[in-house]
Design goal:
By secondary structure, the protein is of the alpha/beta class. The protein has helices at residues 35-43, 63-71, 84-94, 112-125, 150-159, 163-167, 171-174, 203-216, 225-234, 236-239, 250-259; strands at residues 9-14, 29-30, 33-34, 51-57, 76-79, 99-104, 129-131, 146-149, 182-184. Helices cover 38% and strands 14% of the residues. The two termini are 17 Å apart.
Length: 264
C-alpha cells in the first residue's frame, strides 16, 4: 500500500459529451458559462490543489470539451471512453500528480471547501482513500469528493481487469477495506440532507442547477454547498423538479460488481 507523502495534489474531472440522458451536459450554459468551466473555476479556489485537469475521451465527439479546456488554460487528458479508471490515471500522470481528488463533471456545484477538508483529513489520518460519498451520513448528492494517491489507483489498474471496476474509478478501493485504509467524512447537521440531489444528469437536473447558479452567483460568486442547501430549503419548488428522477448510487455499483464475472 501507498504510504509516502504525496508532493503534487491534482483534481481530475471526468467529462464527456455523450451522456445518454442529457447529451452535451458538461458544456451546457450555467449562468453565462459552460458548466465545466464553472466547476473548474470553483475548484481553482482551493488552497491545496496544485492543478485541475479534465479527463475526457479520445472520441471526436469530445473535441468541444478539449477546446473549451484550451480556452481557459486547463490541462486536458484524452483517453478511453469505457475505461474511466485508466483515463483518470492517465490524467493524473499527465500533470505528474501524486494525489488525486476525483470529481465528476456532472457535479458543477462541488464546494472547494469540501475538497480542502478531505485533503486535510487524508493527511491527518494517513489514509489510502477519503471520501464524503458514503458512510452513515453522506453529503447531499452532487457534492461528492474522493481523495486517493495516484499510486493506489495505479495498483488497482494492475490488480483488476473487471470492466465494472474500470468503469467506476474508485470502486475496487472502497470495496476492499481489508487492503486499503478507508475513511468517510460525514456531513454535519446542516449538510446532512439525504433527500437533496444537485447533480447534472437529466433535463430536470439542468433546470434545478441553472436556477441555483442564477440565484446565488450575483451576490455570492463563491457560494458554498451550505448556500445551496439553504436556497433549496427556502425554495422547495426547485426540489420538486427532480423528485422523480431515478439515479444510480455507490451501492448500485457495488451490487453490479458482485454480479459481474472476474471480480478480483
Amino acid at each position: 500500500m501507498y504510504r509516502s507523502q504525496p508532493q503534487k495534489i491534482v483534481a481530475t474531472i471526468e467529462a464527456r459529451m455523450t451522456s445518454s440522458r442529457l447529451p452535451g451536459k458538461v458544456l451546457l450554459d450555467l449562468a453565462g458559462k459552460p458548466a465545466l468551466q464553472q466547476l473548474v473555476e470553483r475548484l481553482r479556489r482551493s488552497r491545496y490543489l496544485d492543478e485541475v485537469v479534465v479527463a475526457t475521451t479520445d472520441r471526436s465527439t469530445d473535441d468541444p470539451v478539449a477546446e473549451m479546456c484550451h480556452q481557459i488554460a486547463c490541462p486536458v487528458f484524452r483517453g478511453s471512453e469505457d475505461d474511466v479508471l485508466a483515463r483518470v490515471l492517465g490524467a493524473a500522470n499527465s500533470v505528474s500528480g501524486d494525489l488525486i481528488v476525483e470529481i465528476t463533471g456532472d457535479c458543477p456545484a462541488v464546494d472547494w471547501r469540501h475538497v480542502d477538508l478531505l485533503i486535510e483529513t487524508f493527511f491527518a489520518g494517513q489514509y489510502d482513500y477519503v471520501a464524503n460519498v458514503a458512510g452513515p451520513r453522506p453529503y447531499p448528492v452532487g457534492f461528492e469528493v474522493q481523495v486517493f494517491p495516484t499510486a493506489v489507483l495505479a495498483e488497482v489498474d494492475q490488480l483488476t481487469q473487471n470492466p465494472v471496476d474500470h468503469e467506476h474509478v474508485s470502486l475496487y478501493i472502497y470495496s476492499h477495506p481489508e487492503r486499503y485504509r478507508i475513511h468517510y467524512v460525514e456531513a454535519g447537521p446542516e449538510l446532512y440532507q439525504p433527500d437533496l440531489e444537485v447533480t447534472l444528469d437529466t433535463p430536470e437536473d439542468y433546470q434545478l442547477i441553472q436556477a441555483v447558479f442564477l440565484a446565488l452567483l450575483p451576490d455570492k460568486p463563491d457560494f458554498s454547498a451550505l448556500d445551496v442547501v439553504d436556497l433549496l430549503r427556502q425554495q422547495p419548488e426547485l426540489l420538486a423538479l427532480t423528485r422523480e428522477v431515478k439515479r444510480k448510487y455507490a451501492e448500485d455499483a457495488l451490487a453490479e460488481r458482485q454480479q459481474s464475472d472476474g471480480g478480483a
